[in-house]
Design a protein that fits this description.
It comes from marine sediment metagenome. The chain has 255 residues and is of the alpha/beta class. Helix content is 32%, strand content 11%. The protein has ten helices and eight strands. The strands form three sheets. It has a four-stranded parallel beta sheet with strand order 5-8-7-6, with helices on both faces. Strands 1-2 form a two-stranded antiparallel sheet. Strands 3-4 form a two-stranded antiparallel ribbon. A hairpin with a 6-residue loop joins β3 and β4. α3 packs antiparallel against α4 and α9 runs parallel beside α10. The radius of gyration is 22 Å and the shape is globular.
Length: 255
């Protein structure tokens, strides 16, 4: 770097390694390295506090989390790669954060509660730890469902129907006609609505949806937005990641 310190050295595996503590993003390596092997793209200013999660050495850092609010739909909007899906996976307990300690597989709830001490997130993780919050999460990549599940749509939904409301939810989401279809033979839009149905059929007081309107036409998007909005009440919180600003504005109380 500009101080004369070696930021890039040969690692134990004989591969180049960037020292995160020394790298300032000055760009010298980009100009000196042959064959355009290194590039610096959209490098943000590094924050000084400890990250909530880090994907390996030199990997993406996440520094904050949105907080669910009971009775409200909280929308999450932003460009690709800023950590929207990572954040809600942590909230949904799908991804266990490492608090920036990449050699550590995960942090326990005690560490998370201490990390967020004095914030709304502290109260959230305390309730999750005490099992006062039950979470239902709809994943972003619904196209993966046919690769991991097999059988008819109805049978798959019955397995997760904790509310015993399959008929009611199927009607509201307009998937009644595909209930007897094989999960591998339905369209992307149908898969999306089946995934939403599977999420809301679970008994939960926090529902998290990652891009619930992808694969849907505008008419279906508006119906899904209204459906999700109606889930929020004084005992239930909803969080939504969405790229469509108009739909999110219609759906969410806070963005």
């Amino acid at each position: 770097n500009k101080s004369g310190e070696e930021c890039i050295v040969e690692g134990d595996d004989n591969k180049p390694k960037i020292n995160e503590e020394l790298c300032t993003g000055c760009g010298i390596c980009v100009h000196r390295c042959p064959y355009d092997a290194i590039s610096v793209i959209n490098l943000p200013e590094e924050l000084t506090e400890k990250p909530i999660h880090q994907y390996g050495e030199n990997g993406f850092h996440l520094y904050n989390l949105p907080t669910p609010i009971f009775g409200k739909v909280v929308g999450i909007l932003g460009k690709n790669g800023i950590g929207k899906s990572t954040a809600i996976k942590i909230l949904a307990s799908v991804l266990e954060p490492n608090l920036g300690e990449i050699e550590k597989e995960k942090a326990d709830y005690g560490e998370l509660i201490e990390y967020f001490k004095g914030t709304e997130a502290q109260l959230f993780f305390e309730k999750v730890k005490d099992k006062k919050i039950k979470i239902a999460y709809k994943l972003q990549q619904v196209d993966l469902i046919p690769k991991t599940q097999k059988g008819k749509v109805k049978e798959l939904l019955k397995k997760v129907d904790e509310k015993k409301q399959l008929g009611k939810i199927a009607k509201e989401l307009e998937i009644e006609e595909i209930l007897d279809n094989d999960i591998k033979k339905i369209s992307g839009g149908e898969l999306q609505r089946v995934a939403i149905a599977a999420t809301v059929l679970k008994k939960a007081n926090l529902y998290i949806f990652d891009e619930p309107t992808s694969y849907l036409d505008i008419k279906q998007r508006l119906k899904i937005a209204k459906f999700i909005r109606n889930l929020a009440n004084e005992k239930t919180a909803v969080m939504v990641v969405e790229h469509d600003l108009i739909i999110l504005d219609y759906m969410a109380d806070l963005v």
